[in-house]
Recover the amino acids of this structure.
């Protein structure tokens, strides 16, 4: 492959060099959210910005930990995971927002993904569609333990990943609406918890490269509750998700000391 690092090891898209990022990384879609997540680290400092990738680094339990944005969707997330792998990162936790699907998932609830529906395009360039996108078991357990400790409302289950945000919210306006609505109803019937856009890429690239991955998501609102005439309050306070993910990462770091 062509060496895009120009020999210095600086990764072509994320703009990071060896030593600038910890082996433990929080990923989130929105670049504007990175500083707020990094505020939960010890001694956080800004590292760099390139394209949609903003990075801060600090530490937790004495180990270097970074926070980086991925931008929206599978393509930019897969690139982020590949380039972090080049830099020796091994544990990646996504913190993102989602829309509830299962009617028990309310605005403000957290969803820990136990798997992701691969209704996006990126992962189909990695492995045939029959292969499941799953996170690392230990990361999922650490996220659940942290959610219990934080006393937040949480759900564990499958999330749906797609490429078109408006295909989720306005499928009836799409020329291919029948197929979209048919799939959505099948996922609902299987108890899918929520819809978002990056976990499938994170899990599949992580599985392909031997990394530990996991996702914890904050439900903004639930369109299925609205459709059924149930209360559907929106919630935009992401701090409980940040605190839960930080606690989980700390525990994963401490577990490695034994
Ligand atoms: O809040 P983030 O991490 O961006 O995640 C969700 O929000 C975006 C859509 O609004 C998509 O990226 C989706 O996955
Ligand atoms: O409804 C939502 C909310 C966040 N992210 C999504 O992909 N969908």
């Amino acid at each position: 492959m062509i060496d895009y690092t120009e020999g210095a090891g600086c990764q072509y898209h994320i703009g990071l060099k060896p030593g600038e990022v910890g082996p433990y990384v929080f990923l989130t879609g929105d670049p504007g959210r990175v500083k707020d997540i990094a505020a939960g680290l010890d001694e956080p400092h800004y590292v760099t910005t390139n394209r949609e990738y903003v990075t801060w680094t600090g530490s937790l339990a004495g180990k270097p930990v970074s926070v980086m944005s991925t931008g929206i969707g599978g393509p930019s997330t897969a690139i982020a995971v590949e380039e972090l792998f080049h830099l020796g990162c091994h544990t990646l936790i996504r913190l993102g927002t989602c829309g509830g699907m299962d009617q028990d998932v309310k605005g403000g609830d957290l969803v820990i993904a136990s798997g992701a529906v691969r209704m996006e395009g990126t992962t189909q360039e990695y492995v045939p569609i029959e292969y499941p996108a799953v996170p690392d078991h230990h990361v999922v357990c650490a996220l659940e333990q942290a959610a219990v400790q934080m006393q937040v409302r949480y759900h564990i289950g499958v999330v749906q990943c797609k490429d078109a945000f408006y295909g989720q919210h306005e499928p009836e306006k799409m020329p291919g609406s029948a197929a979209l609505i048919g799939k959505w109803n099948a996922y609902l019937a299987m108890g899918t918890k929520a819809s978002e856009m990056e976990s499938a890429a994170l899990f599949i690239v992580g599985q392909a490269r031997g990394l530990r991955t996991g996702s914890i998501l904050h439900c903004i609102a639930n369109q299925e509750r609205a459709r059924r005439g149930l209360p559907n309050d929106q919630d935009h306070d992401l701090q409980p998700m940040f605190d839960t993910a930080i606690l989980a990462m700390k525990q994963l770091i401490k577990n490695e000391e034994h």
Notes: The longest helix spans residues 239-255.
